[in-house]
Specification:
heterodimer, A: 28% helix, B: seven-stranded mixed beta sheet, globular
């Protein structure tokens, strides 16, 4: 289990990832990836799950998180507007540019990403897994039903365009908030119908200083339940 | 309390729906073989080790009407009762029932793996319109169209066995709607148990794989009789 953590101002970011039992047994790399960048005025958090049948799934998920970090830097320097459509378009273009001359379909990956800038959070989703953002009195979540019985998840591929993403936005103002992103290795084991309860618990009942312990304990409880790679990322602001 | 109280420790389910023809023509050897095959399938599901999930089985029969003979039930809790054959072939009504069950997330949970729907029949549906009967354009048949276009049902794996010369090959192919999945059209009842062994083996193999949502039935390795046709 690999844990990355960062604090900046009143933002606390943490990501936990681990290769699943199947890949561990094969001595194959973890095909999930997570990344975050935290600045005084904002952050980006992303998790990605490389599609197992693709030759370069591991590289694909790593690339997806990397381009999210680059998009955040573009938000910071003003070269990318803070709106969902522009961010999605930017991600697709950067993806294509990075894989120019290569077979994009070797690098297929899902992606969940959140960007905070100017007191707004944009939640972007491509494929399975869960993404949730909660502020007092409001929760936004990535669509659920489209993930049912996926034998071919929606993912970054040669067919992807900006309309492939689901995009949600929420104004966080100066209030507390929490972001939770996870790949399907974890998402499939949150009790059906209790996702809102889960994110509310993170927001209201879990102090930032206890995040690592709570998330680690949760992660370990899910670990034995399937052979998938598992990754989660959380950013919390307490006000 | 803790975040761990939100962990679904219940294993994920792989639901299997059997649509069983119990019309009058299934009387005798066919229904006996079907009952035996179903018992063997349940026994296998109850005794498989080292899988990270659980099997669920539902049996919907169609004769003069369609009924849920066994509601969707965890394999370990199944107590099978025998099917008996009588009446016509209300296959469309069975399609409607299985569609409504699969589209209902209180019956087939969001956490479930992709369901498999297995159709076993020795004849043509009798609850179709004259127009469909004449044209054999089953893709226009409303109950089958619903299965093929439902948000969840369209993603399901569909397998089919036609028994005897009266089974409608075109309808079976429309039901399966996947050129990579063979339709078995067997000469007589003896193929029923072989077919179900194949279905069971494919299903167990799925559950043992890294991603049971990927539906790729195992190759047909059983020796069907010479007269059996694999389409």
């Amino acid at each position: 289990m690999i844990i990355n953590e960062a604090h900046k101002s009143n933002l606390h970011a943490i990501a936990i990832t681990e290769a699943g039992a199947k890949h561990t047994a094969e001595d194959s790399p973890n095909q999930d990836c997570s990344a975050f960048l935290v600045e005084d005025n904002g952050f980006v958090l992303s998790v990605a799950d490389g599609v197992g049948s693709c030759a370069k799934a591991h590289e694909g998920s790593t690339l997806a998180c990397h381009i999210c970090n680059r998009a955040f830097k573009a938000l910071c320097d003003g070269s990318l507007p803070m709106n969902g459509d522009d961010i999605a378009q930017w991600l697709v273009q950067d993806w294509r540019k990075e894989l120019s001359g290569k077979n994009e379909d070797d690098y297929c990956t899902t992606l969940k990403a959140t960007f905070l800038w100017n007191n707004r959070i944009i939640l972007i989703s491509l494929g399975d897994g869960i993404g949730m953002v909660a502020v007092p009195g409001q929760i936004i979540m990535t669509p659920k039903n489209e993930n049912d019985f996926l034998n071919e998840t929606v993912c970054f591929s040669s067919q992807t365009n900006k309309d492939s993403f689901s995009i949600n936005e929420i104004n966080v103002g100066n209030s507390s908030f929490v972001v939770f992103l996870t790949t399907d290795g974890i998402a499939n084991h949150i009790i059906d119908g209790q996702e809102e309860g889960f994110i509310r618990y993170l927001l209201d009942e879990t102090a930032s200083e206890n995040l690592r312990v709570e998330l680690s304990d949760f992660f370990l409880n899910v670990r034995a339940l399937n052979a998938d790679d598992k990754t989660l990322g959380v950013v919390k602001r307490d006000c | 309390m803790g975040l761990s109280s939100f962990v679904a420790k219940e294993p994920r389910a792989l639901p299997v729906f059997i649509l069983a023809d119990v019309s009058g023509s299934m009387q005798g050897e066919k229904i006996n073989e079907l009952n035996l095959a179903l018992r063997e399938m349940v026994s296998t599901f109850q005794n498989v080790d080292e899988i990270r999930g659980k099997f669920q089985l539902c049996i919907i029969t169609f004769g003069s009407s369609a009924q849920v003979h066994l509601p969707l039930t965890d394999a370990e809790k199944i107590n099978l009762t025998e099917l008996s054959a009588y009446g016509r072939t209300a296959m469309g009504a069975a399609f409607d029932i299985v569609h409504d069950m699969i589209e209902d997330p209180t019956i087939v949970s969001h956490r479930s793996y992709t369901p498999t729907i297995v159709l076993v029949s020795d004849g043509m549906p009798t609850d179709i319109t004259q127009e469909i009967y004449n044209s054999r354009k089953y893709d226009d048949w409303e109950p089958l169209k619903k299965l093929q276009t439902g948000d969840r049902t369209k993603k399901c794996q569909r397998l089919a066995l036609g028994i005897g010369t009266d089974a409608d090959e075109k309808m079976l192919k429309s039901f399966v709607a996947d050129p990579e999945i063979p339709v078995i059209k067997a000469k007589d009842a003896r193929a029923i148990s072989k077919f179900f062994k194949w279905v069971t083996m494919s299903t167990v193999a799925r559950m043992s794989s890294v991603n049971p949502d990927i539906v790729q039935p195992a190759s047909i390795i059983f020796d069907f009789d010479d007269e059996d046709i694999v389409i």
